[in-house]
Amino acid sequence: MANFKSIAPVLAVLAGLSVASTAQAQQQAFMTADKNADTMLDQAEFKVFIDAIAASGKQVAVKVKQAGRYSMAFGKIDKDKNGMLTPAELQALK
Fold first, then answer.
1. Do the domain assignments include residue 3?
2. Domain limits for position 71
3. Spatial CB neighbours of 88, under 8 Å, sequence gap ≥ 6
């Protein structure tokens, strides 16, 4: 079972990912990550998205990246459990 320190980055991303940086920076990160332009992010694209937000200096994304908790964060955000993240799912985190 994971301890709190190991899941803290995931909790932080849930609390603040959608406001990770300015709306424009988040939109740019989403568009960069969405390699197939289907307006959804799969797990590989989500990793690119988190890395882009982390590069902008947002600490919650930095912590997810450093901890390697991409899959755990993805699972928490993917409310309908379809394996894809939509902008709405990310926006719901505000």
1. no
2. 8-91
3. none
**pLDDT 10s digits, 15-62:** 555 454 467 777 888 899 999 999 999 999 999 999 998 888 778 888
77 assigned to some structural domain: yes
CATH number of the domain that 25 lies in? 1.10.238.10
Q: How many domains does one find in the chain?
A: 1
Q: What is the CA radius of gyration of the chain?
A: 12
DSSP code, position 20: S
| Residue 62: how many other CB atoms lie within 10 Å | 18
2 within some domain: no
Q: Please tell me the predicted confidence (pLDDT) of residue 4.
A: 46
> In whole angstroms, what is the distance from residue 83 CA to residue 94 CA?
21
Residue 85 pairs in a beta bridge with: 41
